[in-house]
Amino acid sequence: MLLSNLSDKELVSKYVKGDNYSFEILLSRHKNRVFAFIMSKIKNKDISDDIFQDTYVKVVNSLQKGKYNEEGKFLPWVMRIAHNLVIDHFRKQKKMQMIRSNNDFDIFDVIKDSKINADEKLIKDQIFNDLNLLIDKLPNDQKKVLKMRYYEELSFKKIAEHFDISINTALGRMRYALINLRALSKKHHVDLHN
After folding, report:
1. Which residue from 145, 175, 173 is spatially nearest to 57, judged by alpha carbons?
2. Which of 45, 48, 101, 108 is deepest in the core (most CB within 10 A)?
3. In angstroms, rounded to a whole number, what is the distance separating the alpha carbons of residues 170 and 43?
């Protein structure tokens, strides 16, 4: 039976069991609708591209962590993730506007969001150090894409241009970097959750 004839549920199941091609089919099956939804809210192609890529990185992470509930339908679940990322984008924009308009700006509005106690800071620092050690063990191309995305906050489009590769290749390297990080964290008994 052709993989493309399988239902979303069957493809998700195959992907979770290690068949990466199943995810490629899911991605191509739904990418137009997901992207169109994001674009309808954002109205900017580059930002929409980034949110689209982030949506699928989140989908991959959730599937690999077993956080997908098979009772729900795959596409509505992906749309919900995209919707949440769109909301996050607008929240970030609002916060940046608050910082830029100095007239009634209160620094404590920003600080309240990130207030953590000393114990939490120690735990976060330890996780950060462990994560950096694991990242150094990744293949070079994956390590570079991951660092550019998370530390330099570059878009997948900019990363692709930097390495002269397609956006899909950049996304693929990111996906494999996350898969490998998870495997390395298990192998070295590193808990990356707070």
Report:
1. 175
2. 48
3. 23
pTM score, whole prediction: 0.56
Report whether 29 contacts 8 (CB < 8 A).
yes
Q: What torsion do the CA atoms of 9, 12, 17, 18 make, to the nearest 10 degrees?
A: 150
Q: Mark whether 102 and 128 lie in a shared domain.
A: no
Integer Cα distance of 84 and 80 in angstroms: 6
Length of the chain: 194
How would you class 16 by CB atoms within 10 Å of its CB: exposed for 0-12, middle for 13-18, buried for 19 or more? middle
Burial 127-157 (b: 16+ CB within 10 A, else e): eeebbeebbeebeebbbbbbbbbeeeebbbb
Q: Which amino acid is at 168?
A: N
Residue 164 pLDDT = 93
Residues 157 and 108 reside in one and the same domain: no
Q: How many domains does the chain have?
A: 2
